Amino acid sequence: MTAIPKNWFLGSLIFITAFCSYAYELVLAQILSILWGDVVLQYTITTGIYIAAMGFGASLTPTKISAHRMFIWIEVALSLLAMAAPFCLIGADVHYRAEATFVSYLFIILIGFLSGMELPLLLRIKQESSDDSESAEKALFLDYFGMFFAGLLFALFLNRAWGTLQTSLWLALLNLALALICGIVWGFRHKKMWKLESPVLFVSFGLLTWFVTTYLNLYQETLEKWVIGN
């Protein structure tokens, strides 16, 4: 892969990961505002905790582990968290009210913490493959713009067209597809990925796609009944 396609590919990764991660937090804030009311409070607290957790994640990003492989597994973890978060938040509020606050904030922290590691890892990968002295500035622009675009699109389209729960599932699928693409692209240079990451990603993506397309309506109906019954 030549320098220009590499830069475009890494730039796209930065933008999409920022988009997905911030959209996850908006989904969680929307769910909490439905469950607990006070929209301003829930969005403010969720965003604040998310940004703080991102800072911790960025500062604690390992430097002695392969950035390529770690980035892939973080995307897998984020996709699984995004798929499980609505179910766990609503389930905890309905069946374990005393622990609901802890469960909710735990998911916010985990998603924020892992999201905070994404940009440092991608910057390491970018610096290893490019001599572009402005790579950090360009990466920050794409990261911030991705979050801005996520907020805009979530408010104007995603939440209206798909609803909060479906949006979370489709974003989880997008995150896992991103990890799969990275496993394929980077696997040509890092042969060990073909032995572990690529097979696991193919199976995970296939299973998640099957789950979303088969049980999407049941997933949404179940959670909506819990909310109404609550």
Largest sheet: none
CATH architecture classification: Up-down Bundle
Which CATH class is shown? Mainly Alpha
In whole angstroms, the N-to-C terminal distance is: 54 Å
The parts where pLDDT drops under 50 for at least 5 residues are none
Return the CATH topology: Growth Hormone, Chain: A
Basic shape: globular
Whole-angstrom Rg:
18 Å
Whole-number mean pLDDT:
86
Tally of DSSP helical segments: 7
Task: Summarize the structure in words.
The protein has 230 residues and is an all-alpha fold. The chain has one domain (3-229): Growth Hormone, Chain: A (Up-down Bundle). The protein has seven helices and no strands. It is globular.
SSE layout:
Blueprint: H1 3-36, H2 39-59, H3 67-95, H4 100-129, H5 135-161, H6 163-187, H7 197-229
Question: What is the structure about, briefly put?
Answer:
This protein has 7 helices and no strands. The chain is 87% helix and 0% strand. The longest helix has 34 residues.
